[in-house]
Amino acid sequence: MSQSTFDDDELFGEAASEMRAEVEESLAEARAALPDADDVWDAEADNTLGVLNGLRSALDLGDAEDHLRAAKKTYVMGERADAFEDADDLAEAIEAVEELMATITEAHEKVSDLAKTVPELRSALKEAAEDADEEAEEEE
């Protein structure tokens, strides 16, 4: 190999390109791992609790968080090394995926709360109906 092959600027440029590609690949993997829109929208269940449990499962982020973390780690290293000529697009893409994941996480938490509340509510309503039936029988 000639000496020019090991030029520091050339190697740094090559490394910066590889870092950018790694961030973009990790972001693509994070997006691909997000829940499918149809899985979140479509429901097949016999009752409300089944729908809620299905939705809660559909809102699972799975590996998306790990892929986003990998993208952010590589991005931060590249930024601190001043390796990217223009990284605004990467920062915006990371922020967009983070915001979407935060929305999904919030929805997951709300659905989880509902999945806990609905059975309790059903039991309370059954109990209230039974009490009303008992009172009606006593009045007769």
Mean pLDDT across residues: 92
Write the element-wise H/E pattern from the N-terminal end onward. HHHHH
Number of domains: 1
* Computed CA radius of gyration, to the nearest angstrom: 26 Å
Question: What distance separates the N and C termini?
Answer: 103 Å
Total helix count? 5
Word description of this protein:
It is built from five helices and no strands. With 140 residues, the protein is mainly α. It has one domain (3-139). The longest helix has 52 residues, at 88-139. The radius of gyration is 26 Å and the shape is rod-shaped.
Secondary structure: elements and pairs:
Layout: H1 8-33, H2 37-41, H3 48-58, H4 64-80, H5 88-139
Helix pairs in contact: 1-4, 1-5, 3-5, 4-5
Question: Which keywords apply here?
Answer:
5 helices, 140 residues, rod-shaped, mainly alpha
In short:
By secondary structure, the protein is an all-alpha fold.
